[in-house]
Amino acid sequence: MTISHSVSFFDSQFRKQIHEQNFALNPFEQAALKYLTGDVLDLGCGLGNLSMAAARSGATVVAVDASPAAIAHIQQVAADENLALQGIQADLGSYRVSGQFDAIAAIGLLMFFDRARALELLEDIKQHVKPGGRAAINVLIEGTTYMGMFEPGHYTLFGRDELARHFAGWKVLELSCQSFPAPENTEKVFATIIAQKV
User: Fold this and answer.
1) What is the DSSP string of 73-97?
2) Which pTM does this prediction carry?
3) Distance (Å, rounded) from C-alpha 145 to C-alpha 189?
């Protein structure tokens, strides 16, 4: 598997977080956690903080990421704590979801692909949520000026209302836009949707 700029960027961050024992849930993961019950798929799971929290709460979780450091960490914690948690290292640029899930999370993932792949993966997620199940999606949107984590030409900034349009016909449980300061006087602007398939 070829390691992209973005995967290298985060693999380095994850190694630092493991060394510092920094495993706090980010605000988007905190919002999603209560919806991740039953059989859960966490795409672009990073260090697995959300996956582990869901598994500790009784969910059966498949956690997928491209980072070798992240997946090794997840597998170790799952073994140490005897969690119903499987860590899978995969190239999410070509990954296909298989099986049906009660909840699928993609927190901070879809924006790392060109638009065609981002939308393809979003549709793949929607198709593999069981009726009555939930999707928790978080993306960077237009207005974001922090670009250091992206490989040039290989990212998508979503429109402010785009996620809501993609989940038309689903029951929207939560919908928000939030801005955060980033390095060098830049800004990260996120949209988050948690929606239930009807």
Assistant:
1) HHHHHHHHHT-SEEEEE--TTT---
2) 0.90
3) 8
- Over the range 60-93, which residues count as b (16 or more CB within 10 Å of their CB) and which as e? bbbbbbbbebbbebbbebbeeeebebbbebeebb
Token match 């450091």: residue?
Answer: 69
- Separation between Cα atoms, residue 167 and residue 191, nearest integer Å: 13
Spatial contact of 45 and 74, defined as CB atoms under 8 Å apart: yes
Domain ranges for the chain, please list them: 5-18+25-196
Strand order in the sheet with 171-182: 85-89, 60-65, 39-43, 101-107, 129-140, 186-196, 171-182
Residue 166 structure tokens: 């993609």
CATH of domain 5-18+25-196: 3.40.50.150
What is the pLDDT averaged over residues 170-196?
96
> Mind giving me the DSSP string for 9-62?
HHHHHHHHHHHHT--PPPHHHHHHHTT--SEEEEET-TT-HHHHHHHHTT-EEE
Q: What is the CA 86 to chain-centroid distance, rounded?
A: 16
Residue type, 33: L
Q: Is 128 left (phi over 0), alpha (psi -120 to 50) or beta?
A: alpha
Residue-wise pLDDT for 19-46, tens only, equals 676 678 999 999 999 999 999 999 999 9
Please tell me the distance from the alpha carbon of residue 102 to that of residue 130, in angstroms, as a whole number.
Answer: 6
